[in-house]
């Protein structure tokens, strides 16, 4: 399809939530897949909020996930004069009118209707008013909604929507201070920006008929609409921060990869057979808003972790190196990258876990696990550590791989009449101070002979010290 123009139109809440990112992604995919345009508009008519920060926060998130937009950002706050012109035009054409009804009277009217159990509508008393307007009342401007027939549109997700004229109000398009209203400016902007397809949350469904009234009054073509159901938590309730409704950049801080997050989001509301894994290329190839689901989607934290582990596992060393500084780790030696990265990738689901394991492996042991110490502090292990250091001293060349280390440990064990498999727990104690981490042979290969010896020496000290204290206690 040609000439698709979509947009993302966030209200500046300060940062981008994942629900917003999903909406942006759907719009982005549809435009990009069709060689169209994806535009960004900041809906900042509420001037108390800071739109520049919001833009930066959105750009930061877009940048991280690798999404971009076309052209200049449109700020509604900079377009008041333009909106005023359209209010004028509608007034001139008799499609809008000043309404002088006071707030208090409106309120009283509404309460009265509600008390009778009726749905309240403004009674349109100023629609065809000719005469002298009441003095001292600053009027609002209302649009003339159709009195008969219906507003019809075919939503790409919800299907045919028909809204009876009876249900429509002559709603306000400009307040008494001249500030235009939400639905009015959205329709004008979408029309002027040439938006062909509006993909947005279905919390906006009830706004659409009003926006269509504006399009029609101004003779603008009505775009296609896709109202996407909400993302719910596993209990079927609105997503809270605890469930994952947090800033996109918090996902980065928690160690998620943008590929995983986008893949996760595209599946919240859209599917292609049973496939779960979609690269950006595949999303662009396959995404079509007409296949968006009409049922709400459910946020599944386990699935996000699973996807993240998948994408983490697929990262090459270069990509990992580029990411490490953000998580406070420096890029290790090539040997470490070659020997440890594959193992750490397998053992971690997030980059935070990855860095934790990497640091555990590379940082000197700070403390030894007490329970492990109780098991390890035997005379046999003291002999073993000493003998192993002597053995390491005889080695002429550095280890190239975990296999090299395994061969040496086996040779050493044979020579001393020991069982190789019994040596790994004490070695883990010596090299890491506790359980967890990576395979011991890989770790030795990565650390090299000198660091391995140093750690074993330190562990020996801890064993001797523990034994001396133990002896003192015994002798008391
Ligand atoms: N500004 C609205 C929001 O952040 C979106 C409006 C629209 O997409 O039409 O929810």
UniProtKB/TrEMBL annotation:
Q: Which InterPro entries match?
A: aa-tRNA-synth_I_cd-bd, aa-tRNA-synth_I_codon-bd_sub2, aa-tRNA-synth_I_CS, aa_tRNA-synth_I_cd-bd_sf, Glu-tRNA-ligase_bac/mito, Glu/Gln-tRNA-synth, Glu/Gln-tRNA-synth_Ib_cat-dom, GluQ/Sye
The entry sums up its family as follows:
Belongs to the class-I aminoacyl-tRNA synthetase family. Glutamate--tRNA ligase type 1 subfamily.
Q: What is this protein called?
A: Glutamate--tRNA ligase
Motif 'HIGH' region: list the residue ranges: 10-20
MF terms (GO), sorted A to Z? glutamate-tRNA ligase activity
Give UniProt keywords alphabetically.
Aminoacyl-tRNA synthetase, ATP-binding, Cytoplasm, Ligase, Membrane, Nucleotide-binding, Protein biosynthesis, Transmembrane, Transmembrane helix
Q: What is its EC number?
A: 6.1.1.17
Task: Tell me where it mainly resides.
Answer: cytoplasm
User: Which catalysed reactions does the entry list for this protein?
Assistant: tRNA(Glu) + L-glutamate + ATP = L-glutamyl-tRNA(Glu) + AMP + diphosphate
The protein's role, per its UniProt record: Catalyzes the attachment of glutamate to tRNA(Glu) in a two-step reaction: glutamate is first activated by ATP to form Glu-AMP and then transferred to the acceptor end of tRNA(Glu).
Q: Where is this motif: 'KMSKS' region?
A: 238-242
Is Nucleotide-binding one of the keywords? yes
Where does it reside?
Cytoplasm
Self-association state and partner proteins as the record states:
Monomer.
Specify the Glutamyl/glutaminyl-tRNA synthetase class Ib catalytic domain's residue ranges: 4-306
Coiled coil ranges (UniProt) are none
> Any stretches that span the bilayer, and where are they?
429-449
Q: Does the keyword Aminoacyl-tRNA synthetase apply?
A: yes
Q: What class of enzyme is it?
A: ligase
Instruction: Give the organism the record lists.
Output: Helicobacter turcicus
Report residues binding ATP.
Answer: 241
> Boundaries of each Aminoacyl-tRNA synthetase class I anticodon-binding domain copy?
339-460
The cross-references to PANTHER family, in alphabetical order and at most eight, read: GLUTAMATE--TRNA LIGASE, GLUTAMATE--TRNA LIGASE, MITOCHONDRIAL-RELATED
């Amino acid at each position: 399809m040609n000439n698709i123009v979509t947009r993302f139109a966030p209200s500046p809440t300060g940062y981008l939530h994942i629900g917003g990112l999903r909406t942006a992604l759907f719009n982005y995919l549809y435009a990009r897949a069709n060689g169209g345009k994806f535009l960004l508009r900041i809906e900042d008519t509420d001037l108390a909020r800071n739109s520049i920060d919001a833009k930066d926060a959105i750009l930061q998130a877009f940048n991280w996930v690798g999404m971009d937009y076309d052209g200049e950002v449109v700020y509604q706050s900079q377009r008041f004069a333009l909106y005023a012109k359209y209010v004028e035009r509608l007034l001139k054409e008799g499609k809008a009118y000043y309404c002088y009804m006071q707030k208090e009277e409106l309120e009283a009217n509404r309460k009265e209707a509600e008390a009778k159990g009726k749905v309240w509508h403004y009674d349109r008393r100023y629609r065809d008013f000719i005469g002298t307007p009441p003095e001292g009342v600053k009027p609002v401007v209302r649009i003339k909604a159709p009195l008969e027939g219906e507003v019809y549109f075919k939503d790409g997700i919800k299907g045919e929507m028909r809204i009876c004229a009876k249900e429509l109000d002559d709603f306000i398009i400009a307040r008494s201070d001249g500030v235009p209203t939400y639905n009015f400016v959205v329709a004008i902007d979408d029309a002027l920006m040439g938006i062909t397809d509006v993909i947005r949350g279905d919390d906006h469904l009830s706004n659409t008929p009003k926006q269509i009234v504006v399009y029609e009054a101004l003779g603008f073509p009505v775009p296609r609409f896709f109202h996407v159901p909400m993302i719910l938590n596993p209990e079927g309730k609105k997503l809270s921060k605890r469930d994952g409704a947090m800033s996109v950049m918090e996902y980065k801080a928690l160690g998620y990869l943008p590929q995983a997050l986008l893949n996760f989001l595209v599946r919240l509301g859209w599917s292609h057979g049973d496939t779960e894994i979609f690269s950006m290329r595949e999303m662009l190839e396959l995404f079509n808003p007409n296949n968006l689901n009409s049922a709400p989607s459910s946020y599944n934290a386990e699935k996000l972790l699973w996807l993240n582990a998948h994408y983490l596992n697929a990262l090459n060393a270069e990509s990992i190196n580029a990411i490490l500084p953000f998580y406070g780790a420096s890029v290790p030696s090539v040997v470490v990258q070659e020997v440890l990265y594959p193992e750490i990738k397998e053992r971690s689901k997030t980059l935070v876990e990855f860095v934790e394991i990497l640091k555990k492996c590379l940082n000197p042991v700070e403390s030894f696990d007490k329970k492990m110490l109780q098991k390890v502090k035997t005379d046999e292990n003291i002999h073993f550590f000493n003998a192993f250091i002597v053995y390491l001293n005889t080695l002429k060349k550095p280890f190239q791989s975990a296999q090299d280390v395994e061969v040496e440990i086996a040779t050493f064990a044979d020579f001393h009449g020991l069982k190789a498999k019994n040596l790994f727990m004490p070695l883990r104690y010596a090299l890491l101070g506790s359980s967890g981490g990576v395979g011991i042979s890989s770790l030795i290969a990565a650390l090299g002979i000198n660091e391995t010896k140093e750690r074993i020496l330190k562990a020996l000290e801890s064993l001797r010290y523990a034994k001396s204290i133990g002896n003192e206690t015994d002798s008391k």
